[in-house]
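Record 1-phosphatidylinositol phosphodiesterase, 318 aa.
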Amino acid sequence: MGGQVSTQMEKRKAISTEKKTLCDLQQGCGKEFPGCDYRPPDRKNWMSGLNPEKVHLNKIVWPGTHDSATNKIGIPFVSRPFAQCQSLSIYHQLVRGTRVIDIRVQEDRRVCHGILLTYGVDVVLNDIKKFFSETQSEIIILEIRTEFGHEDPPEFDKYLEEQLGEFLIHQDDHVFEKTIAELLPKRVICVWKPRKSPQPKPGGPLWSGGYLKDNWIDTDLPSTKFESNLKYLGEQQPVVSRKFFYRVENTVTPQADNPVLCVRPVTGRIHGYARLFITQCFSRGCADRLQILSTDFIDEDFVDACVGLTQARVEGKV
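=>
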């Protein structure tokens, strides 16, 4: 018993120390970067506002959400706090400015997070189609994977093609160099990551898992995650040289050995440091590698930071 108490005290001390490290770094370095003052006049149509004929896909800093379809997961006030990573529906995330969606499914096409379930994936796809019907030039990346420990939904690739066919941007390495205008009226890069089923084929309407990569660090320590994100990002090629998307997740994850297991207070330890992260990318020489930046509980300021850097790239300010 005494050993457990001692371990918990050490854990809390480590968390407190790491939170202070990020706070001190922000106070010392600030959070200014090219485009940091830009605020899109209409987040729902921010790509359109930057001029689709000028915006190349490899210039975009894509604001994304982690575990995007968890706004209604589990049982309210019982299991939901342990798995909910977003409070908004997919539609309202897109309206807010999100452009990368992270969906996990199980064999019956229901969205899940671990063992907890929520609505069917059709709800996600209908939200996307509703958003597309209200906008003209917004492109999104939709990642759908079979959750760990679950089986692939039968014939899921065909289902996605049937549901999104008219909007699907086909798998093609040349896409990265094109502008939004050159891809329209197609609107979605759909990355399907099955566990056992065959991967999407080159040239097909769906993209295989190798086109969206990241280095997931499973920790609840904010400075550890922050520094690891910078380290792995620095090991990537510049975005103009890559033929895949690379994601950085500005999140930390509850751990079983810590008494705080609810997502929101844990991920809150790093949530407010997205602008600091971008600033540090410039300070450490890896800003040209930043492409997808994802978060839990996405807010307007996070979107504005990503769009601001995108605007600076498009205008040749970096």
